[in-house]
Write a structure and sequence with these properties.
This protein is mainly α. The chain has helices spanning about 5-25, 35-60, 60-90, 100-125, 130-150, 160-170, 195-215, 225-235, 235-245, 255-270, 280-300; strands spanning about 180-185, 190.
Length: about 300
């Protein structure tokens, strides 16, 4: 089978599991318990690893290693998304039982937007190879910015241009209307706050994609590997959110770890200008070591309070 046919079958598979997820397992709006979320997170990770095995036997060891490394990077960066989603849901006071629906449709939008970004990125790299060095410089800049970012930065949806646009088009209901995005009142459609939350989540993911897409192009130039590793990471984002939602504040050194990873990937792209190529195995081991160290450090080193006591 060609990569094109496999990609089509892959998209059919993604659509099928999303329909089953929303139409069967999540038909009743609820906030998944930790055990349920953990099971689903394990399912998505297992599916990604099984696909990785398929890539190994169909395309060889090199592409399989590229897929796994790309998946690890995207999965790690998605954890930062989760922290932002927590802030967004808190800001809008989204009822816990409605958060899954927002994340579900957020995933749909993320798949569409990332497919567009990957196609554009691949086309640009094909025509202008030097753009890889711009990607590398951008990732280094992002790494520095992330490392300097304060942990208590607030989300300000009112400044989001997409939110401002929506408010100009539709009147907004003062309260949530169940799981509905729009309702009809007095012959006129009104937007509910839940749709505004979705708009903020989608626009935030677009912003995150500007980091994650260049990062994975540092690992592989194959659009098929870039796309599938991205999508598998996104598919597991919702269940991972419900697993980590109550633990995110404990991983206080994770942002530093992610900034180091982005900086490393950016430098990996830049040194190629001098014909220096870092092997994929070395990249994978470095990324895993940095992420594991940041998580373990967060757990093992207690946080000090304002008075300096532990």
């Amino acid at each position: 089978m060609s990569e094109t046919l496999i990609t089509v079958l892959f998209l059919v598979f993604v659509l099928a599991v999303l329909i089953i997820d929303l139409g069967v397992f999540q038909r009743k709006a609820h906030f998944p318990k930790f055990k349920e979320a953990l099971v689903w997170s394990s399912v998505w990770i297992s599916l990604a690893l099984l696909f990785n095995v398929f890539v190994y036997f169909r395309f060889g060891e090199e592409l399989a290693l590229q897929f796994f490394t790309g998946y690890v990077i995207e999965k790690a960066l998605s954890v930062d998304n989760i922290f932002v989603f927590i802030l967004i849901f808190s800001y809008f006071a989204v009822p816990s039982e409605l958060q899954h629906k927002v994340l579900f449709w957020g995933v749909i939008g993320a798949i569409i937007f990332r497919a567009i970004f990957i196609l554009l990125g691949a086309a640009l790299i094909e025509q202008f190879h030097w753009i890889l060095y711009l990607f590398g410089a951008f990732l280094v800049f992002t790494a520095i910015k992330l490392a300097m970012q304060k942990g208590d930065d607030e989300i300000k949806p009112e400044k989001n241009p997409f939110v401002k646009f929506c408010k100009k088009i539709f009147p907004i209901t003062p309260h949530y209307e169940g799981s509905k995005f729009f309702i009809r009142k007095n012959g006129k459609y009104h937007m509910t706050p839940l749709f505004l939350v979705l708009v903020v989540v989608e626009s935030t993911d677009v912003a995150f994609a500007t980091d994650s897409i260049p990062a994975i192009f540092a690992i592989t130039r194959d659009p098929f590997i870039v796309f599938t590793s991205n999508i598998f990471a996104i598919l597991g984002l919702r269940s991972l959110y419900f697993v980590l939602a109550n633990f995110m504040k404990k991983f206080r050194f994770l942002k530093i770890g992610l900034s180091v990873v982005l900086g490393f990937i950016g430098l990996k792209m830049l040194v190629e200008f001098f014909d220096v190529h870092i092997p994929i195995v070395a990249s994978l081991l470095t990324i895993c070591f940095v992420l594991l160290t940041s998580v373990l450090t967060s757990i093992l080193i207690p946080e000090r309070n304002k008075h300096g006591a532990s």
